[in-house]
């Protein structure tokens, strides 16, 4: 499959389906997003009921990649301008979904938590470059671990941004 629009939509659906299994998380990742650096956000709710009270917003970027076989080392080349935008916004979680070319229903989600200090460190290594390879970790299947990723991202971003 070489249709980038479909690949991105499958990647967004994979992230949404994984996140929606966690009671306190709610995804808001529009299809065909044309935003310059972000694809949407994940909301963390204080309680299991989804209300407008005490919402935490985590910006996210989602990318899809077709692969013949899943790579042993996962990384993603990110644009420096995107990193600068994430820094100004207080951080972001980057998701990259690898989709098996031979069976598009087989997908693996990987992520990188990009907090202000981490972004600043990356930017110091990128003088004159347009992109930088970011190491990714496999997104867990356990719902408590998923929630902790978002809670820790928010906590660390708040401390580092202020």
What's the short story on this structure?
By secondary structure, the protein is of the alpha+beta class. It contains four helices and eight strands. The strands form two sheets. Strands 1-2-3-5-6-8 form a six-stranded mixed β-sheet, sandwiched between helices. The protein has a two-stranded antiparallel ribbon with strand order 4-7.
What features would you describe in this structure?
- The radius of gyration is 16 Å and the shape is globular.
- The protein has a six-stranded mixed β-sheet with strand order 1-2-3-5-6-8, with helices on both faces. Strands 4-7 form a two-stranded antiparallel sheet.
- 33% of the residues lie in helices and 31% in strands.
- Helix 2 (80-88) runs antiparallel to helix 3.
- The mean pLDDT is 90.
- It is of the alpha+beta class and 162 residues long.
- The termini are far apart.
- The protein has helices spanning 4-19, 80-88, 116-124, 143-161, and strands at 25-28, 40-44, 56-67, 75-79, 92-100, 107-114, 131-135, 137-138.
Itemize the secondary structure elements and their pairings.
Layout: H1 4-19, E1 25-28, E2 40-44, E3 56-67, E4 75-79, H2 80-88, E5 92-100, E6 107-114, H3 116-124, E7 131-135, E8 137-138, H4 143-161
């Amino acid at each position: 499959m070489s249709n980038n629009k479909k690949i991105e939509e499958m990647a967004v659906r994979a992230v949404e389906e994984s996140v929606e299994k966690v009671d306190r998380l709610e995804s808001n990742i529009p299809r065909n997003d044309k935003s310059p650096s972000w694809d949407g956000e994940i909301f963390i709710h204080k309680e299991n009921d989804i209300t407008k009270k005490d919402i935490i917003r985590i910006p996210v970027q989602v990318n899809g990649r077709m692969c013949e076989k899943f790579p042993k080392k996962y990384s993603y080349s990110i644009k420096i301008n995107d990193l600068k935008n994430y820094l100004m916004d207080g951080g972001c979680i980057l998701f990259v979904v690898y989709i098996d070319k031979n069976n598009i229903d087989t997908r693996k989600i990987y992520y990188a938590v990009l907090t202000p200090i981490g972004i600043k460190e990356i930017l110091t290594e990128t003088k004159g470059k347009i992109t930088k390879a970011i190491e990714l970790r496999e997104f867990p299947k356990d719902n408590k671990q998923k929630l902790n990723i978002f809670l820790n991202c928010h906590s660390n971003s708040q401390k580092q941004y202020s």
